[in-house]
Design a protein that fits this description.
It is built from twelve helices and six strands. With about 300 residues, the chain is of the alpha/beta class. It folds into two domains: about 170 residues, 3-Layer(aba) Sandwich (Rossmann fold); about 100 residues, no CATH class. Strands 3-2-1-4-5-6 form a six-stranded mixed beta sheet.
């Protein structure tokens, strides 16, 4: 067995030495994908992060949620117990960007009116007329330039990203606005207005098992054929091939017959795969959301 590990173990987005942080106050992954991908009643492994996916799955599944960052895992535990939580590093980076949004014509009233729309055709008209301005496009390109990102994120978390990230992110936003009604999309609210979803945990959340572990190391020690589903967030973004192989081998070993996987990535590498459901993910940010049977990994 290889000792392959992951950059996420540091519990920080930046390259500085310092204590681990709560990185995500909420998850930006649309768990309706998982609810469709996994047969009800199964045993599912998920990444804990802010606890959102675990709580969405808990009413229909036995959920084991692992996280390599103990600070993030404690935060998920608090949320699962009903604490509303707070803004993590990721939300504070987005708050910083939103602070300058009026300079690009994104006045709060204008953005709020957009978020209240519920017809994708009307949304795209409004988007092109009011929000997708030259100043917005220039600002987004600057925000997502490698130089700007390097001041916030460590380099393994950037190397896999597509070139021209500003244009790529704009296209992903438009893909979502053209397909999903904004008004009922909690991720449009959180991304554009900075509102954290107030949804309380379901009663079944008390049964979620939280484990402080690396996903690969955890699965290597579980019984073979003991999980029916795996949702792995984007934990393979920014890792080397050795860790990727190690994790996929551990998933295959722990998978029961017919088990399914969901794997997200910010990169565009698997965007053309027929397993890619990124356009169905209302969190809108992903290059790929691969939904596959374990047998096809
Ligand atoms: C991959 S990050 C990305 C954020 C995510 N897309 C979201 O919206 O919450 C989510 C979480 O994965 C955890 N993580 C990353 N690699 C992991 C691994 N190999 N095993 C367990 N947890 C991991 C991080 O600590 C973090 O809390």
């Amino acid at each position: 067995m290889t000792a392959a590990v992951t950059v996420w173990e540091r519990g920080r987005l930046d390259a500085r030495v310092g204590p681990r942080q709560v990185l995500f106050g909420r998850m930006y992954e649309d768990a309706s994908i998982e609810l469709e991908a996994f047969r009800p009643g199964g045993r599912i492994l998920c990444i804990a992060s802010a606890g959102c996916t675990a709580m969405k799955l808990a009413p229909q599944h036995e959920v084991v949620a692992v996280d390599i960052n103990p600070v993030q895992l404690d935060y998920a535990a608090r949320r699962i117990n009903g604490d509303p939580g707070f803004r993590g590093r990721a939300e504070r980076v987005m708050d910083f960007a939103r602070f300058f949004a009026p300079l690009a014509g994104w006045w709060p009233s204008r953005v709020r009116a957009f978020v209240e729309l519920d017809d994708p055709i009307e949304q795209m008209e409004y988007w092109q007329r009011q929000l997708n301005t030259w100043r917005f496009r220039t600002a987004l390109d600057g925000l997502f330039s490698v130089t700007a990102l390097r001041s916030v994120y460590s380099s393994p978390l950037l190397d896999f990203l597509p070139k021209h990230l500003g244009a790529v992110m704009r296209a992903r936003m438009e893909r979502c606005f053209a397909k999903h009604p904004n008004r009922s999309n909690p991720y449009a609210r959180s991304l554009l207005l900075g509102e954290l979803s107030p949804e309380p945990p379901p009663p079944e959340a008390k049964d979620i098992r939280l484990v402080h572990a690396d996903a690969a190391g955890f699965l290597e020690n579980e019984a073979p054929a003991s999980f029916d589903g795996f949702t792995l967030s984007n934990i393979l973004d920014g890792v080397d091939d050795a860790y990727r192989r190690r994790l996929l081998a551990a998933v295959k070993r722990a998978a029961a017959p017919g088990a399914a996987t969901v794997l997200r990535s910010f990169s565009d590498r698997s965007a053309n795969s027929i397993a890619n459901r990124a356009s169905d993910d209302r969190a809108m940010l992903w290059g790929s959301v691969l939904v596959r049977p374990v047998a096809e990994l």
